Structures are given as structure tokens and as C-alpha cells.
Amino acid sequence: MKFELDPAFWNAWSQYSASLSKVNEKSAFELTHHEPFFYYLNHENNKNIKTLFDNLMAKKTDVINKYIIEYIPLNGISSFIDIGGGLGSFAKNIKMHYPHIQCHVMDQYDFTKKESEGVTFINGNFFTAIPSGYDAYCIKNVLDDWPDNQAIDILKNCHKAMQKDSVLYVIDMIKEPNDAASFDLYMDTLLLGRKRYKSEFEFVAKQAGLSITNIYNLNFSTENGSNYIIEMKK
Predict the structure, then answer these.
(1) What string of DSSP letters covers 25-47?
(2) What pTM did the predictor assign?
(3) Closest Cα partner for 197 from 179, 210, 182, 183?
(4) How confident is the model at residue 193 (pLDDT cuts 50, 70, 90)?
């Protein structure tokens, strides 16, 4: 079954109008299920939908991986961590092309730490703390899951973890005025998240003490927009 067709997601559309209220700060999904989307996924009896979601994210990563590998500047990088990296397919791809780089993935797992295919997986929550000491940090398809205040919190934790010469790569779509709105509705329903214009990325970066130093066009687009690597530094 497709993730989007699972009843847990589909039923949330009934609360979409209510989620647009200015006095309400909850997504349609949270109004329907009485807890945020990612909390819902972590319940033992919701493993099926978590698997669907993880597989959807891994599939998206597999499609875009070859474009990221072509354009992401990793010369001189010896350590790399993918924040919210899920099953680790992107980090494993980095390791395959750059075997000298120490590759780690941080996400919410049911274990503390483990290794697989040369990649170290670390349990953690990017709203609490992000491990320090890496040359390169990566946030791929994460910030679009969150409204500005929480996106800024994630970036602030990246700022705290980064050394003065570390780099953060935000891999995401940059919205254009004529882009379709369907994916924004999808993110709104689940998380109150959304795609951002370049100026909006500049805003959340600045609020976290970071600056955008470069933007790399991946020359890869979907029906929802064009994909970029947004380079940020302290």
C-alpha cells in the first residue's frame, strides 16, 4: 500500500480546514490522531505505517542520490553525519564513493548505536542535541517537515554542534512562484511543514546564526519542484 493511501494519513484530511485556523497550531494529522506525526510513528502498533514512511523516504533518496553525489563538494571532508538520515541509504552512498570518509547517521532508532556497511547509526533527536566534531553535516528532506520555528530550532542545534570550519548541507527543494501547491498541502496535513523560497531559507538560516554560502543546482526536478544543495556555514 502507498503511504499516502494509508487510512491514518487519508483520514487526516477531514481535519485540514480546522488546521488552517489562526488560533490552532496543530496539523490536521495531530488533530485527527491527538499527537504529532512522528510521535504516532514511534508506537509499536504503528510499525506498518512507519515502515511505509521509511521506505518512501528511502525511495526518494535512491532516486536523487546520483545527482547529490555528483554535486556535493566533499573534497577535504573526513567526517560526515546525516541528520535525520533514516535507513542510511544516502550515507551508504557517500561511503561507497568516498571510502575514506567516516559516515554517521543520526535518527530516532530503537537502539543506541550500531554499524552497517561501514556506516555508524546513532540514536538521537535533532530537537535535543546533535553530535559535535564533524567536518560536514547534512539535513536532507527534513526542514520541509517543520514550520519555521522548529526548522530554526534544528538549525540552531546544528550551529551548536558545528566547528568554525564545519559545513552544513541542506538538501531540499527551493520553491519557485509557479511550482505546484500539492506537496505543500501534503506537508501541511502531516506536519504543518512546507517548501520554502530562497528568501525563506535565508531567513531561517540567519535566525540560527548561519549564512548561506553557496547553492548547488542538482539539475533534478520532480512535479513538486527543483532540488538543490544549500551550503550553510557559521
Answers:
(1) -S-HHHHHHSS-HHHHHTSGGGH
(2) 0.79
(3) 179
(4) low
